[in-house]
Write a structure and sequence with these properties.
Blueprint (H helix, E strand, L loop, with lengths): L5 H17 L14 H12 L7 H21 L6 H9 L8 H13 L6 E8 L9 E8 L8 E4 L8 E4 L9 E2 H7 L3 E3 L7 E4 L6
Length: about 210
């Protein structure tokens, strides 16, 4: 076999990196599959189980919106690649949106538009203090008045446009912390004064 040229080595290295990333993500074709009634009903049951005060109709509606909006966002973001490859395209201006905080922001906004009476929405960040792993954002749904830690993660980013949901306390991949707490601790939110009515500045919440 002839020695590899620099161009060939570069191509092989790029291919290996792409395969490594793709190995952690769902095949592109599966992102086009609509959610099944069983998938929606399982999430609805998990949301209902968040507390005795959760309305069954709201739980079913939240589950359906989460799945349907994930598919809508995957189309709008032009998802054709695993998450980290798509991130690189967004950062190079080749895709409009699709970083993890875009997913979290848009999912939270869509679910809040439903004006649930028995459910709350939260935002969370993981890996902000980890120099090795990429920082990640998500939306979380909980029973009304319950803390974020008792909710369910709604994360379309980690499988590239396929909704991953898991109770916060059972998420083995990420340790979640309240978004505003993380932004304050990392200096990305500056408060005007102790008597400030709000936040004066905030950077984008995460790199993922």
């Amino acid at each position: 076999m002839p020695p590899a040229t620099p161009t060939r080595r570069t191509v092989l290295a790029g291919l290996a990196a792409s395969l490594a990333v793709a190995g952690c993500a769902a095949p592109v074709a599966s992102r086009k599959r609509p959610p099944t009634p069983l998938e929606i009903s399982r999430l609805a049951a998990a949301i209902r189980a968040l507390g005795p005060g959760v309305d069954a109709e709201e739980a079913e509606r939240a589950a359906r919106v989460a799945y349907v909006h994930t598919a809508e966002l995957a189309e709008a973001y032009q998802i054709t690649d695993p998450p980290l490859v798509h991130n690189a395209k967004v950062n190079r201006g080749l895709r409009p949106r699709g970083l993890c905080w875009h997913w979290a922001e848009d999912m939270e906004k869509r679910l809040k538009a439903e004006r649930f009476r028995t459910l709350d929405l939260h935002r969370a960040i993981a890996n902000a203090d980890n120099p090795v792993r990429i920082e990640h954002s998500t939306a979380i749904i909980s029973a009304r008045g319950a803390p974020m830690q008792e909710g369910i993660v709604l994360d379309p980013w980690r499988r590239g446009g396929i909704l991953t949901w898991v109770p916060v306390r059972e998420d083995r991949r990420y340790r979640w912390h309240p978004r505003m707490q993380v932004l304050r601790e990392t200096g990305r939110v500056i408060e005007r004064s102790p008597s400030s009515l709000g936040l004066s500045q905030a950077s984008p919440p995460s790199a993922g």
